[in-house]
Specification:
heterodimer; A: about 400 residues; alpha/beta; three-stranded antiparallel beta sheet; B: mainly alpha; two-stranded antiparallel sheet; 26 helices; about 60% helix
Chain lengths: ~400, ~450
C-alpha cells in the first residue's frame, strides 16, 4: 500500500469555496459531517437482484428461471425462509448474522423503459427525477449533500477509481484517487470487443492475446494477486481515507451485465463486491461500527432467464446495505411478487419504492439532513415516505 | 468524384474532432499544410549549440575543480541535464499539441511523413534536440516547396550528418587525412548510400555500388562540430571530380558545398525518385499495396512540376483512391493518441496545458508500449508501414489498456460514448461497433471499446 504511487487529484472546482455557493445562503445547514461514514458503491452494468437475493419462496420463480437462481436446493444460502443469498456472497454470511447486512429487493430510480446503462447510471448518480433532461443533470447527489454541510474540506469526500463518479461531481470540493494499475476488462467489454474485432482478421487474431495481456495487468499492481485485486485496492484506499478525515467515499464495481452465462459472470462480480465490503470492514476496524455502505445499481434485469443462460436489462432491482451502523439481517420493503400480472411491463420485477428514498433516509439518520432539504435539494422532487429505519 | 470531408479528415488528417468541422474541400487540406509550414517557436540549431556549449563548459569545470567546488559543479550539471530532459519532453508534447490542433490535420501528417522519410533516430538528449531542429528547420519550411530544397536542408542538417556518420567521413586524400595518417581517417558510405537508396531513387532505382562510392567521396567535407558553426570543411573533402549516375561533379578547384547542392538537385530530379516518392506517399496515405494508377499520377505531377511538394500534396488530397481504400491503413501509435485526444475535445492549448509529468506518463511513455518509442525508430528507413507491424498482441494490448485507463484521467468528464462514436467516427462506424457501444456497462468501457476498435485504429 505504501509503495503504491498515489495520484491524488483534486476535483476541478476545488478552489471554489463551499461557503460561497448560493445554495448555502438559502437553505438551512445540515449538521457537520460528524463521525458517521458513508460509502456508496455504484454497481455498473445492472446487477440481477433476483439472483443475488433469490426469492425462492415465490412460487413463480422456478417457472421463470430454468437454471438461474435455484435457491437453497442449488447451493444458495437461506436468509429468512423466503430469500436465499447467492453462494458467491457466502463470505458475507457472518455479517448477515451479525445484523450488518441487509437489502431492499425491489427498488429502482425513476428511470423507465429505455433501459440504457449510461442513462440509467446518470440518473442514479444525479439523484434527480425524470423532470430534468439528462444533460441538465450535472451535479451528483453526494455533491449536493456536501453543499448543504458546513465545515467540510476537500478531504471530506473521496471518489476512488478510474470511473468518473458523477455522483460526487459538482461545485462542492472533493477529492479523487485512482491507482495507476491496469484495470482488467469486464467480461462484457471483452465480449463486445471480440465481436467488434470479429470481421477484421488482423484484430481478431491479435485481439485474443491482447486481452489476455491486458487482464494480466500491464501496469504494476501492488495489491496481492487474484481476480479481485483491483477492487480490493479501491476499498483499501477508501478505508484508509475514511479512517482519517474522510467521511464519504464512493467507487464503482463493473461486471454485472450478465446477458449470457450469468452464473459465471455474476459470480466474478459478486466476488469483487464481497471482497470490497470485507476489505472495508477489515481496513476500518472499529470505525466499521459507524459505517454505512450502500451498493446501488442502475436497474435490475428481466425476471425470466433468456436463451443464453443470462438475463437482459430490466427495471426493479436490489439495493444492498452493509456496515456496522446498519440494522440488517432482514429484507426491507414490500415484495411485489413474480406472477405475470405483478411484473413491470410483463417482464421485469416491479419496483415498489424509489431507491433514492433509502439513500435519503440514510443521509437523514447519518448526518441529520432535514427532510425538506433532502426532498427539495439533494433529491429534488422525491417523496421520502416512511422511514425504513435502515440504521441501527 | 465528390470530396468526402469525414474520410479526408480520417485518412489524410488526425481524425475528427468535436471542436472543428472536417475539411470541406481539398483547399482546406492545403490550408493546413501552409499552417504546418509556419514557424511556431521552432527548435533552432542555434539554441542546441548554446545547450552544447553550456555542457562543454560544465564538463571542463568538472575536470579542473577540486573538493567542494567539484561537488557543486556536479550538482549544477545534473540540474542542467534534468532541464534539458524536460525540454526534450516538452518538444514531443509540442509536436503532439500541434498535431491535435491542426484543423484538417493534413499538414502535420505531412510533417511526420517527410520527417520519417528523412529519419534520424536515437542518441542522447542533445541528439534529440537536434532531431527536433531537423523537423522545424529542414522539413517544415519546405513542406509546400521543392523536394530538392527539403532534401538539401535535411541531408546537410547536423543531426543527419551525425546520425549517418557523415561528420566523421574524410576523403582518403583530403588535406586532413594526409596530415594525420596515424589516425587512419577515411571514407564512410553511410549517408551516401541512404541518400540514394532511401531518400531519392529508392532501392529499386537504377544505380550501382560505384555511384554510392563516388557520392560518398563527393559528400566529404560535410561535418558537424558542436563548438564551430561550420557545416562544410574543405580540408576533409576528397580532391578531384566524382561521377555520380553518369554526371561529373567538382573538379580541380577547391571543394565546394555547391557541388553537393548540385548532386542533390540531380538526385531529386531523377526519374526513379519521382516513382519512389510517389509510391511511398501512396503507401503511407492510401494502402500498404497501393494502386499503380495513383502512383503513376503522383509521379507524373512530381516530374511535371519539378518536384513541387505543394502540387504533389494537392494531387494526393484530390485523389479518389483516398476514399476507395478506406481503412486499409493502421493509425500508427502517435496518430492513435492524437486522434484520441482530438476526439476527447483537446485542442492545441489543452495539450500544452498538461503538466509535463502528465504528458509524459499518459502520452509519451505509452507510445513505447504500442511499439513507437518516439524519436527512436529501429533504422534509417523509419517506422514500418505494414498493418501487421502495428497490430501485435503487445501493441494492441497497450492500446486497449490506454483506452481503458487514460481518457478518464485526461478529461474532467468523459463524453457519452454514443456521442463520442459520432464525434470521432461520424458516419463511418461499422455496424458491429454501433451495436456494441450502447451495450457497454459503463461510459468508460463504452469509450474504451470505441478507442480500441478496429474502426478507430484503422484509417
Amino acid at each position: 500500500m505504501l509503495s503504491r504511487r498515489l495520484f491524488l487529484k483534486s476535483s476541478a472546482l476545488i478552489g471554489c469555496s463551499a461557503a460561497a455557493h448560493p445554495l448555502l445562503s438559502s437553505i438551512a445547514l445540515a449538521s457537520a459531517p460528524g463521525e458517521n461514514r458513508l460509502v456508496v458503491i455504484i454497481l455498473r452494468g445492472a446487477m440481477d437482484g433476483l439472483d443475488v437475493f433469490q426469492p425462492y419462496g415465490d412460487p413463480h420463480l422456478r417457472a421463470l428461471r430454468r437454471t438461474l437462481s435455484p435457491g437453497p436446493d442449488g447451493g444458495a444460502l437461506d436468509l429468512d425462509g423466503f430469500f436465499a443469498l447467492h453462494p458467491a456472497l457466502a463470505p458475507l454470511m457472518p455479517l448477515w448474522r451479525a445484523g450488518e447486512l441487509g437489502f431492499a429487493p425491489a427498488v429502482s430510480t425513476p428511470y423507465r423503459d429505455k433501459r440504457s446503462h449510461f442513462d440509467g447510471q446518470d440518473m442514479l448518480e444525479a439523484g434527480t427525477g425524470t423532470d430534468l433532461a439528462l444533460y441538465q443533470q450535472r451535479d451528483g447527489w453526494l455533491n449536493r449533500l456536501l453543499q448543504t454541510m458546513p465545515n467540510i474540506s476537500s478531504e471530506t469526500a473521496y471518489s476512488v477509481g478510474l470511473e468518473k463518479m458523477r455522483i460526487l461531481g459538482g461545485p462542492a470540493p472533493s477529492k479523487s484517487w485512482a491507482p495507476e494499475a491496469a484495470f482488467s476488462l469486464s467480461p462484457q467489454a471483452q465480449r463486445l470487443l471480440e465481436r467488434v474485432y470479429h470481421d477484421d482478421p488482423l484484430f481478431r487474431e491479435a485481439g485474443g492475446q491482447a486481452m489476455e495481456i491486458v487482464s494480466e495487468g500491464i501496469g504494476t499492481i501492488h495489491e496481492d494477486g487474484g481476480p479481485t485485486r483491483d477492487t480490493r485496492a479501491l476499498a483499501r484506499f477508501a478505508a484508509d481515507r475514511l479512517s482519517a478525515g474522510t467521511r464519504i467515499a464512493t467507487f464503482s464495481i463493473s461486471g454485472w451485465d450478465s446477458h449470457a452465462r450469468q452464473s459465471k459472470v455474476i459470480g466474478r462480480a459478486l466476488d469483487r463486491l464481497s471482497d470490497a465490503i470485507l476489505t472495508l470492514r477489515e481496513g476500518l476496524g472499529r470505525t466499521w461500527m459507524k459505517t454505512t455502505v450502500l451498493a446501488m445499481t442502475e436497474f435490475g434485469r428481466t425476471a425470466a432467464e433468456n436463451g443464453t443462460g443470462g438475463t437482459d436489462h430490466g427495471t426493479g432491482g436490489a439495493l444492498l446495505m452493509a456496515g456496522g451502523a446498519v440494522r440488517g439481517g432482514r429484507a426491507m420493503g414490500r415484495w411485489p411478487g413474480l406472477a405475470e400480472g405483478d411484473l413491470y411491463a410483463g417482464r421485469d420485477l416491479m419496483p415498489v419504492r424509489d431507491i433514492r428514498a433509502y439513500a435519503a433516509w440514510a443521509l437523514h439518520d447519518l448526518y441529520g439532513v432535514r427532510r425538506e432539504v433532502l426532498e427539495g435539494t439533494v433529491f429534488p422532487g422525491l417523496d421520502m415516505e416512511d422511514n425504513p429505519r435502515i440504521l441501527a | 468524384m465528390t470530396f468526402d470531408p469525414q474520410i479526408a479528415a480520417i485518412r489524410l488528417g488526425y481524425g475528427l474532432s468535436p471542436l472543428t468541422a472536417p475539411p470541406a474541400t481539398a483547399g482546406d487540406l492545403l490550408d493546413s499544410v501552409r499552417l504546418a509550414g509556419m514557424d511556431q517557436d521552432p527548435m533552432r540549431m542555434r539554441r542546441v549549440r548554446r545547450v552544447q556549449d553550456r555542457l562543454v563548459k560544465l564538463n571542463a569545470r568538472m575536470k579542473n575543480a577540486q573538493g567542494a567546488e567539484k561537488a557543486d559543479t556536479r550538482d549544477r550539471k545534473r540540474a542542467y541535464q534534468r532541464k534539458i530532459r524536460d525540454l526534450e519532453r516538452q518538444l514531443v508534447q509540442r509536436r503532439i499539441a500541434r498535431a491535435v490542433g491542426d484543423p484538417a490535420g493534413f499538414g502535420e501528417r505531412l510533417v511526420q511523413f517527410w520527417s520519417d522519410h528523412f529519419t534520424v533516430s536515437g542518441g542522447g538528449l542533445q541528439q534529440m534536440l537536434m532531431a527536433a531542429s531537423l523537423v522545424d528547420e529542414a522539413i517544415r519550411p519546405h513542406l509546400s516547396g521543392r523536394f530538392a530544397d527539403m532534401m538539401f536542408a535535411a541531408e546537410t542538417h547536423p543531426r543527419m550528418l551525425t546520425y549517418l556518420d557523415q561528420a566523421r567521413s574524410f576523403g582518403p586524400n583530403s588535406t586532413i587525412a594526409r596530415r594525420q595518417q596515424n589516425r587512419e581517417l577515411g571514407l564512410n558510405e553511410n549517408l551516401a548510400r541512404e541518400m540514394i537508396e532511401l531518400h531519392s531513387l529508392g532501392v529499386a532505382g537504377d544505380y550501382t555500388q560505384t555511384d554510392v562510392r563516388q557520392l560518398a567521396k563527393l559528400l566529404t567535407g560535410l561535418t558537424y562540430n558542436a563548438r564551430k558553426d561550420q557545416s562544410f570543411r574543405p580540408g576533409m573533402a576528397e580532391p578531384g571530380a566524382e561521377t555520380v549516375l553518369g554526371r561529373s561533379y567538382g573538379g580541380d578547384g577547391p571543394a565546394r558545398l555547391a557541388d553537393i547542392r548540385a548532386v542533390i538537385d540531380d538526385l531529386a530530379g531523377h526519374e526513379d525518385t519521382a516513382s519512389h516518392l510517389a509510391r511511398k506517399l501512396a503507401v503511407h496515405f492510401v494502402s500498404d499495396d497501393p494502386p499503380a494508377g495513383l502512383i503513376g499520377r503522383l509521379a507524373a505531377v512530381y516530374r511535371e512540376t519539378d518536384g513541387d511538394l505543394g502540387m504533389l500534396s494537392a494531387a494526393l488530397a484530390e485523389a479518389p483512391e483516398v476514399a476507395a481504400h478506406f481503412r486499409a491503413k493502421m493509425r500508427q501509435p502517435f496518430d492513435f493518441l492524437v486522434a484520441a485526444l482530438r476526439g476527447l475535445g483537446f485542442d492545441r492549448d489543452a495539450v500544452m496545458a498538461l503538466p509535463l509529468r502528465e504528458a509524459h506518463a499518459r502520452l509519451i511513455n505509452p507510445l513505447k508500449g504500442m511499439g513507437q518509442d518516439w524519436g527512436r525508430p529501429r533504422g534509417p528507413d523509419g517506422w514500418p508501414e505494414a498493418a501487421e507491424s502495428w497490430v501485435t498482441p503487445q501493441g494492441l494490448a497497450t492500446r486497449i489498456d490506454w483506452a481503458m485507463r487514460h481518457p478518464a484521467k485526461l478529461v474532467a468528464t468523459l463524453p457519452d460514448p454514443r456521442s463520442f462514436l459520432i464525434s470521432t467516427l461520424g458516419d463511418t462506424a461499422s455496424d458491429a461497433l454501433r451495436w456494441a457501444v450502447p451495450k457497454a456497462e459503463s461510459a468508460r468501457e463504452g469509450l474504451a471499446i470505441i478507442l480500441a476498435s478496429s474502426d478507430f485504429n484503422r484509417r
